[in-house]
């Protein structure tokens, strides 16, 4: 198969982990006889430095016309001025919106050999296997008005949480479809005791659920969900939620697996290229040291093969190689190991 893949390494450890994933994709290309064409584009702080904006129109167009997009991470202290007009993260939001990738799938699993890497007791981690389905192109991140203004000598800032019923319906429907192929349970997370958007969310969710009598629906308030994720994480199968709730809950859920560096994600729309990125950020504290955990990005590249290129065998091969490497104990420092990014990637390539 021939495919065009846009690489958006971004900032901090982004280029380090994307380079690792590209080595793995190139090995897959060779082993399974495919032809991947890689093209690099800028996003985030490096794009601001080069052109003044976090994502140029031409970079977005290149992504829109590719088969898939693999992203590292954006951001860092250099671009963190709270009064800056252009922020690296703005490029990422524009990319997600521009690709129409409304569904961000973030699976959380616990590898048996890494049970000790989590601060939770091993018995709490038994049976943990969930997918967080995060709404990605609406909610508090995109609602209008969004502004800062002076009112009577005081500074006023506004963000808006907004959803249309159809935006909720399509993401919840995707969660139910996913649950059908799993343990048939959907936990819809909201703040319906306070927020109007959440009350609409709950109403639409009930409506969608009626079409899936074989799947159990549970509604949970987000504060309770934050608590249950660490007190009883094995109860979750598919968890579906609003953009910002999903952002926060997935960082929390990453603690179950042992490190932020392990978690991949796939962002999908109804058509067009998918966007694949680890859930972690640019990790400025370890950037440039060559010690970043590449596994979240490598697993994201497996999702790219599975969802955008329909290469299931190849995706599974990467996942098996990652599992074997983790089991072998060749780990980066975030998981208590001594291996660097290259050594972990070499080990994955050895078993691929
Ligand atoms: N998708 C993205 O591009 C994305 C996601 C989250 C944060 N960010 C941005 O990243 C910057 C830094 O944010 P932060 O420090 O709060 O979060 P972060 O995820 O970058 O780092 C949090 C902690 O996890 C560690 N960590 C993260 N990824 C790792 C990896 N692959 N291997 C080993 N350790 C890893 C870091 O060293 C750090 O101690 C901010 O500008 C933020 O906006 C970007
Ligand atoms: C960098 C930021 C905009 C981003 C988000 O909040 O979506 C990140 O935290 C993530 O989880 O991908
Ligand atoms: Mg996040």
What descriptive keywords fit this protein?
ten-stranded mixed sheet; binds 3-isopropylmalic acid; binds magnesium ion; single chain; 12 helices; 12 strands; 352 residues; alpha/beta; manganese; two-stranded antiparallel sheet; binds nicotinamide-adenine-dinucleotide
Report on the architecture of this protein:
With 352 residues, the chain is an alpha/beta fold. The protein has a domain at 1-100 and 273-352: Isopropylmalate Dehydrogenase (3-Layer(aba) Sandwich), CATH 3.40.718. 42% of the residues lie in helices and 21% in strands. It contains twelve helices and twelve strands. It has helices at residues 14-32, 45-51, 57-64, 88-99, 122-125, 165-180, 196-210, 222-231, 243-257, 295-308, 312-328, 341-351; strands at residues 2-10, 35-40, 68-73, 103-109, 129-135, 143-151, 154-160, 185-190, 216-221, 238-241, 266-268, 274-276. Strands 2-1-3-12-11-4-5-10-8-9 form a ten-stranded mixed beta sheet, with helices on both faces. A hairpin with a 5-residue loop joins strand 11 and strand 12. Helix 1 packs across helix 10 (295-308). The longest helix has 19 residues, at 14-32. The protein starts with a strand and ends with a helix. The model has no long low-confidence stretch (mean pLDDT 98). It binds nicotinamide-adenine-dinucleotide, 3-isopropylmalic acid and magnesium ion (MG). The site of nicotinamide-adenine-dinucleotide has 22 residues, from helix 4. Homodimer. Pathway: Amino-acid biosynthesis; L-leucine biosynthesis; L-leucine from 3-methyl-2-oxobutanoate: step 3/4. Catalyzes the oxidation of 3-carboxy-2-hydroxy-4-methylpentanoate (3-isopropylmalate) to 3-carboxy-4-methyl-2-oxopentanoate. The product decarboxylates to 4-methyl-2 oxopentanoate. This is 3-isopropylmalate dehydrogenase. Its EC number is 1.1.1.85.
């Amino acid at each position: 198969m021939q495919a065009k893949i846009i690489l958006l390494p971004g900032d901090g450890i982004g280029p380090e982990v994307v380079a690792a994933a590209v080595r793995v994709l190139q090995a897959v290309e060779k082993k399974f006889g495919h032809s991947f064409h890689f093209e690099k584009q800028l996003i985030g702080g490096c794009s601001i430095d080069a052109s003044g904006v976090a994502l140029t129109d031409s970079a977005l167009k290149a992504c829109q016309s590719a088969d898939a997009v693999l992203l590292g991470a954006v951001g860092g202290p250099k671009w963190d001025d709270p009064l800056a007009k252009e922020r690296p993260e703005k490029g990422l939001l524009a990319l997600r919106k521009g690709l129409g990738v409304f569904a961000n799938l973030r699976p959380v699993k616990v590898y048996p050999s890494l049970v000790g890497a989590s601060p939770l007791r091993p018995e709490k981690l038994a049976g943990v296997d969930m997918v967080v389905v995060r709404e990605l192109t609406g909610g508090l991140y995109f609602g209008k008005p969004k502004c800062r203004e002076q009112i009577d000598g005081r500074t006023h800032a506004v963000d808006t949480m907004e959803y249309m019923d159809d935006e909720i319906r399509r993401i919840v429907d995707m969660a139910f479809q996913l649950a059908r192929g799993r343990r048939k349970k959907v936990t819809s997370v909201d703040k319906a005791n306070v927020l109007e958007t959440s009350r609409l969310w709950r109403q639409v969710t009930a409506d969608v659920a009626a079409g899936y009598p074989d799947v159990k629906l549970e509604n949970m308030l987000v504060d309770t969900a934050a608590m249950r994720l660490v007190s009883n994480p094995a109860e979750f199968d598919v968890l579906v939620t609003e953009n910002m709730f999903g952002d926060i809950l997935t960082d929390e859920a990453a603690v179950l697996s042992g490190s932020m560096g392990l978690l991949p994600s796939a962002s999908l729309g109804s058509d067009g290229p998918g966007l694949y990125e680890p859930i972690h950020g640019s990790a400025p504290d370890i950037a440039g040291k060559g010690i970043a955990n590449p596994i979240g990005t490598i697993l994201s590249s497996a999702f790219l093969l599975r969802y955008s290129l329909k290469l299931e065998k190849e995706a599974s091969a990467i996942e098996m190689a990652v599992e074997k490497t983790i089991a072998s104990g060749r780990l980066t420092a975030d998981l208590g190991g001594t291996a660097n990014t290259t050594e972990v990637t070499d080990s994955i390539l050895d078993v691929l």
